[in-house]
C-alpha cells in the first residue's frame, strides 16, 4: 500500500489517480500515525505552493517527526515538486524556512533572467542509473511548475535540468527519491516513474 500524505498542499488526487492507473493500491494519509502503519510500504509527499507554509503545516499536523522516523526505517519515500523541495535543509522563500533535512542544501529562487515560474515541458538529463528511472531515456521531457530550485549535489543527483542554470531535477539518497517535475502530469515518461516507484514499494525490483 502506497500512502499519500495529505497536509493540505494540493494535487493529492492527481497523484493518487496516477498510481491507481498503474495498478498500485493507494490511500490518503491524514494522520501521522497512519504513515507508520506496517501496511504502508511506500509514501509520497506531493505539494504545490509556499515552502514555509507547507513546512508549518507539516509541523502543525505532526508529520515532520513521522516522516523522519519512516525514512529512518529505510522504507521507500517519494517527494514531488514542493514535496521534493521540502526534503532539503531549507528554502529562502518568503524570508526563509527550515526543511526536513533529508537532502543537503538550500532551495533558492531563479534569478529572473528567464520567465518565472519555470512552467511547461523541459528535459531531464540522466546522471545516474536507478531502478526508479528504468525505461526512461536520457533527455526525456517532463512537466515543471516552480520558481525555486534545489542545489545540484553530484553524489545524489539522478537527473538535471537546465533553466537559467543546471539544477537537480531528481535526487536519490538511500530509499528516498525526489523529483522537481510532476510525474503525474508527464504522460508516458511520468507514468513509468510512478510505476517504477510502485514496483520498488512492492518489492518487485532491485534498487
Structure description:
With 207 residues, the chain is of the alpha/beta class. The protein has helices spanning 12-21, 32-35, 51-61, 63-72, 82-85, 187-201; strands spanning 2-5, 26-29, 42-45, 76-80, 90-91, 97-98, 106-109, 118-126, 140-146, 148-149, 157-163, 165-173, 176-179. A nine-stranded mixed beta sheet has the order 2-1-3-4-13-12-11-8-9. It has a four-stranded mixed beta sheet with strand order 6-5-7-10, with helices on one face. Helix 1 (12-21) links the parallel strand 1 (2-5) and strand 2 (26-29). It is globular and about 45 Å long.
What does the secondary structure layout of this molecule look like, with pairings?
Elements: E1 2-5, H1 12-21, E2 26-29, H2 32-35, E3 42-45, H3 51-61, H4 63-72, E4 76-80, H5 82-85, E5 90-91, E6 97-98, E7 106-109, E8 118-126, E9 140-146, E10 148-149, E11 157-163, E12 165-173, E13 176-179, H6 187-201
Parallel strand pairs: 1-2, 1-3, 3-4, 4-13, 5-7
Antiparallel strand pairs: 5-6, 7-10, 8-9, 8-11, 11-12, 12-13
Secondary-structure element pattern, one letter each:
EHEHEHHEHEEEEEEEEEH
Side by side, the strands of the main sheet go 2-1-3-4-13-12-11-8-9
Report the sheet with the most strands, covering strand number, pairing sense and barrel closure. 9 strands, mixed
What oligomeric assembly is this protein in? single chain
CATH level 3 topology: Rossmann fold
The Cα radius of gyration reads 15 Å
Question: What is the CA–CA distance across the termini?
Answer: 18 Å
Helical fraction: 25-40%
Number of domains: 1
Q: Going by CATH, what is the homologous superfamily?
A: Class I glutamine amidotransferase (GATase) domain
Average pLDDT value? 94
**Percentage of residues in DSSP E strands:** 25-35%
**Dominant shape:** globular
Report the uncertain regions.
none
Structural class: alpha/beta
- Number of helices, where a helix is a run of at least 4 consecutive DSSP H or I residues: 6
**Got a strand count?**
13
CATH class: Alpha Beta
CATH architecture: 3-Layer(aba) Sandwich
Amino acid at each position: 500500500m502506497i500512502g499519500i500524505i495529505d497536509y493540505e498542499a494540493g494535487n493529492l488526487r492527481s497523484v493518487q489517480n496516477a498510481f491507481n492507473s498503474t495498478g498500485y493500491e493507494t490511500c490518503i494519509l491524514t494522520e501521522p500515525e497512519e504513515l507508520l502503519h506496517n501496511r504502508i510500504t511506500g509514501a509520497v509527499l506531493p505539494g504545490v505552493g509556499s515552502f514555509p507554509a507547507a513546512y508549518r503545516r507539516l509541523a502543525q499536523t505532526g508529520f515532520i517527526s513521522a516522516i523522519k522516523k519512516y525514512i529512518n526505517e529505510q522504507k521507500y519515500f517519494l517527494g514531488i515538486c514542493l514535496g521534493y523541495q521540502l526534503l532539503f535543509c531549507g528554502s529562502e522563500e518568503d524570508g526563509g524556512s527550515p526543511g526536513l533535512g533529508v537532502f543537503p542544501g538550500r532551495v533558492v529562487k531563479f534569478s529572473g533572467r528567464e520567465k518565472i515560474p519555470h512552467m511547461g515541458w523541459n528535459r531531464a538529463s540522466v546522471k545516474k542509473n536507478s531502478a526508479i528511472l528504468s525505461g526512461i531515456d536520457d533527455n526525456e521531457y517532463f512537466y515543471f511548475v516552480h520558481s525555486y530550485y534545489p542545489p545540484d549535489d553530484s553524489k545524489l543527483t539522478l537527473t538535471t535540468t537546465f533553466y537559467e542554470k543546471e539544477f537537480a531535477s531528481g535526487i536519490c539518497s538511500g530509499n528516498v527519491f525526489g523529483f522537481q517535475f510532476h510525474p503525474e502530469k508527464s504522460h508516458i515518461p511520468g507514468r513509468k516513474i510512478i510505476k517504477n516507484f510502485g514496483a520498488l514499494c512492492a518489492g518487485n525490483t532491485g534498487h
